[in-house]
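Anyone? Bumping this.
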Amino acid sequence: MVKVNLSVLALGVTLLLLAETWAQNPRKRLAPPKPNKAQCCDEVRSLKVQVANLTSLLEELSRKQDTELMNVLRQLMELDKQNRQQEARVTEAESKYSEINNRVEIMQLQTLQSATQTSSDAIYDCASLYSKNYRISGEYKLPKDDFLGTPELNVFCDMETNGGGWTLIQRRKIGLTSFNRDWKQYKSGFGSIRGDFWLGNDHIFRITRQPSMLRIEMEDWEGQTRYAEYGFFTVGNELNSYKLFLANYSGNAGDSLRYHNNTNFSTIDKDNDKCVDDCASRRKGGYWYNCCTDSNLNGVFYRYGEHTKSSDGITWYGWHGSNYSLKKVEMKVRPAGFQP
Ligand SMILES: [Ca+2]
């Protein structure tokens, strides 16, 4: 009897406990059974995969953003470039227009002048044209003069820079004319007087028989300009290999022609330099080579991007060193006593 009673009591207690548990936490009973170890790892793995997917998605998005940003930047740069090209075209058109105007005016003036010219007011350079009130920069024709023994010669006059009256003896700006020429070509001159040219050693000799000065103007690929001026400049005749004499430097480009002072002119076919090397072949121009250069204004014209890769370019060591080929150069002379 006691045994049965005890069993009934135990059952009752159990039922009571169960009921209490149910009342306290009814949801717990509905919760799924605790996962075993394998299930847990599966979940972690799947979470890890999701995280990895999200990460790569984020990376992809950030890459896309970078690419888009780069594209926008590229478009901006392209627009800027087009803008600058258009500006350059307008500037070029304007300068061509004013050049044509100048040529017409010069032709009219020279026609007038030649009708009234006498032998006493001979014209042998741009300075004498300036003193006859020609004040426009451009191409002029110097008349043949039997008394001076000068042939007719086309020259380009700079009537503006530092008082004007300058006769150009050299220009580099377009880059299509080769300056790697022989003695004969350097003697008589080559190129186009409104573009790239060498006036000719015979003409330079003749023009600088009177005490003369030289001015060299340079421009780099960043658009900066510098100049070098020599208060004294002359060259010998052909028998003296057009030997260079200069002095009295002033300017802001550095004195990079001094090293060439008292040297003879050399060309590809005439090695008159002061070097074992053949400087004219090495530097690909005609110049007063020493051994070999501190400047090489008749060197190879290199375009932007190519202008710092060679030592035979249009160099002026005093400004940009031995491996920077300049964008533009003009060499011009006028009488030392010139009064604007
Ligand atoms: Ca030599």
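Late reply, but here is one note on the structure posted above: The pocket of calcium ion is lined by residues 271, 273, 275, 277-278 (CB under 6 Å).
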